[in-house]
Automatic annotation (TrEMBL):
Pfam families found in the cross-reference section: Beta-lactamase
Name under which the protein is recorded: CubicO group peptidase (Beta-lactamase class C family)
All copies of domain Beta-lactamase-related, residue ranges: 2-342
Xref: Gene3D superfamilies: DD-peptidase/beta-lactamase superfamily
Amino acid sequence: MCVTIDGDTVVDLWGGTADPTTGTEWKQDTIGHVWSCTKGATALCAHVLASRGELDVNAPVVKYWPEFGAKGKEGVLVRHLLTHTAGLPALRAPLPEGALYDAAAMAERLAGEEPFWEPGTRQGYHALTFGFLVGEVVRRVSGRGLGTFFRDEIAGPLGLDFWIGLPEEFERRVAPTVPAPPPAPGASLPTFYQRAFTDPASLQALVIGNTGGYVLTPGESDSRAAHAAEIGAVGGITNGRGLAGMYRPLAVGGGLVSPDQLAMMGSVAAATQVDAALLVPTRWTLGFMKGSDNRHLPGPDGEGVLLSEDAFGHSGMGGSLGFADPVPRLSFGYSMNLQGSGLGVNERGQSLVNAVYRTLGYQQAHGGLWYL
């Protein structure tokens, strides 16, 4: 866990077991898989280009990626990719083993895919495809692959131990993922997983089942091939320090982006009461999550991310989280190897967020989102 205020690191904590099979301790330089926290890094790459005037988020994707216009997608805007409204949360035709490790091939497949809904009319979390869609736009505009652009323009200048495509020399420092324990007797899975596991024809089944083995094959996401690949939706390797460090300049006025771009990054651009993929309420800026209080929903669907209304960032499967909050000039990062089973940050990460906001004098509205 790492927290910065006014650009200064005020909390930097680590501990526990990095590898339960060997008993290796979690060390200061241990890094791990932060899953969808990677989407925040990928979105930031797009915003850096937009801030420089090289990318227009309101332009059609075909302006930068002409082949993308197939199958009725000529009107899809870059903002639709960033807000999970493009209608491409999965691929229909079966993917071969290891497909997610070839970003160019995945971009080609997505360019030829027919949308699941009319782009811009529905919101549905693009869990695995987001990175290949936004990442290909970054590549087309910058001439560099997503991982290279992120390293050159963000991680390198900020001194971050954060990788989209991990060099082999750092593999020894990675804490392998520990799957979430099975639900307790009588407990249920989130509706998303229930639908995926009981309806093989559902969108949810395609989202987690048609990944070339990446999601459902035990240990595959911890393979060297997975770590080396540029999977811009879920493949990032870092720790709490790396997440807080990436959001640090955004918490104190921009740095990497212009003030106007920063305001856009923090403003709600899409919201729905029933996400077409996750089946719960979600709110998005252009590429980032906003705080959501879903505790009115039963069971694990009630797990959200309780932040202030000014905060924006992204959580990762199992509970990792990174975000910026420009009002208290706060950045926050939390990572772990032991997964939680819900769709939000679960009580471990949320308790840390709560402690930070309480320390800053915030209160909760009806027990929900934080406010000064």
